[in-house]
């Protein structure tokens, strides 16, 4: 079945440094790749997403890159701040009304002030 | 606009007991999802509805879990009988269309502890 692998499981960086989280997916028909941020005890919330017709998308300090050939995509956070500390989940889905969103295992990001 | 509502927020039961969780999605959202999130793991899809029809329930343990979405609006997820490994947060989410078409809006979740 469909599977999404996410690495690393934990990541600790100094404030101001960059953070990179990587995911690979198994379903070659996947063409929608969102990233969700989940703060402790809170609901997951979408922070950025990318579709397979583009290779990179940026939104202020966050960016996502996609390599469809290799079936992997990455989240990049620059100039990290303590409020970026959270669990980040990648996910993959086919772009359709019946597509189902499969999540990775999550990465706990800690930004040290 | 009101978000996805879930209740109860917390539930503690003993194994072999039953429990039910309720979800009211954002008004007008056709698709509703139930995810199970075990501590330290990513959300795992249990069942996905589009309106009141089931799109996917391949990972729902049907011997003990059941879900319905009457009239294509709110939904109930039931576990009977519960096992220790069912301890998790049960997240309900909704979206205007399918999962691949855009953002899923999650509720706060229902935290289940099975003793």
Structure description:
The complex is a heterodimer of chains A (113) and B (115). Chain A is built from no helices and 11 strands. Chain A has strands spanning 4-7, 10-14, 19-25, 32-38, 45-51, 56-59, 62-67, 72-77, 86-92, 102-103, 107-112. In chain A, the strands form 2 sheets. In chain A, strands 2, 4, 5, 9, 10 and 11 form a 6-stranded mixed β-sheet that branches. Chain A starts with a strand and ends with a strand. Chain B is mainly beta. Chain B has strands spanning 5-7, 10-13, 19-24, 31-37, 44-50, 53-56, 65-68, 75-79, 88-95, 105-106, 110-114. In chain B, strands 2, 4, 5, 6, 9, 10 and 11 form a 7-stranded mixed β-sheet that branches. In chain B, strands 1-3-8-7 form a 4-stranded antiparallel β-sheet, with no helix packed on it. In chain B, strand 5 (44-50) and strand 6 (53-56) form a beta hairpin. The mean pLDDT of chain B is 93. Chain A binds chain B through residues 1, 4, 6, 31-32, 34, 42-46, 49, 89, 91, 93-106, and chain B through 30-31, 33, 35, 40-45, 48, 50, 55-56, 58, 91, 97-104, 106-109.
Question: What can be said about this structure in brief?
Answer:
The complex is a heterodimer of chains A (113) and B (115). Chain A has no helices and 11 strands.
Comma- or semicolon-separated keywords:
heterodimer, A: 113 residues, mainly beta, six-stranded mixed β-sheet, five-stranded antiparallel β-sheet, 11 strands, B: 115 residues, seven-stranded mixed β-sheet, four-stranded antiparallel β-sheet, 0% helix, globular
What is the C-alpha radius of gyration of chain A, as a whole number of Å? Answer: 14 Å
Order of helices and strands of chain B: EEEEEEEEEEE
Q: How would you classify the quaternary structure?
A: heterodimer
Number of strands of chain B: 11
Range of helix content of chain A: under 10%
- Provide a count of the helices of chain B: 0
Outline the low-pLDDT stretches of chain A: none
CA distance, first residue to last residue of chain A: 41 Å
Rg from alpha-carbon coordinates of chain B: 13 Å
Question: What distance lies between the first and last C-alpha atoms of chain B, to the nearest angstrom?
Answer: 37 Å
Strand content of chain B: over 45%
What structural category do the secondary elements of chain B indicate?
A: mainly beta
Record field, number of beta strands of chain A: 11
The H-and-E topology of chain A, N to C, reads as EEEEEEEEEEE
Strand content of chain A: over 45%
């Amino acid at each position: 079945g469909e599977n999404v692998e996410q690495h690393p499981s934990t990541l600790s960086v100094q404030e101001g440094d960059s953070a990179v989280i990587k995911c690979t997916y198994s379903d070659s028909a996947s063409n929608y790749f969102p990233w969700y941020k989940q703060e402790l005890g809170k609901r997951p919330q979408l922070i950025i997403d990318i579709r397979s017709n583009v290779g990179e998308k940026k939104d202020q300090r966050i960016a996502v890159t996609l390599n469809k050939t290799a079936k992997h995509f990455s989240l990049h956070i620059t100039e990290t701040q303590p409020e970026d500390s959270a669990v980040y989940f990648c996910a993959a889905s086919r772009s359709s009304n019946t597509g189902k969103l499969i999540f990775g295992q999550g990465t706990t990001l800690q930004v040290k002030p | 606009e009101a978000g996805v509502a879930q209740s109860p927020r917390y539930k503690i039961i003993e194994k072999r007991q039953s429990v039910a969780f309720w979800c009211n999605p954002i008004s007008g959202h056709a698709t509703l999802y139930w995810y199970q999130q075990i501590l330290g793991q990513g959300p795992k899809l249990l069942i996905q509805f589009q309106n009141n029809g089931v799109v996917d329930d391949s990972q729902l343990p049907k011997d003990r879990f059941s879900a319905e979405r009457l009239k294509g609006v709110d939904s109930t997820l039931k576990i009977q009988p519960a096992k220790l490994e069912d301890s998790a947060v049960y997240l309900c989410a909704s979206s205007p269309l399918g999962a691949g078409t855009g953002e899923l809006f999650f509720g706060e979740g229902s935290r289940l502890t099975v003793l």
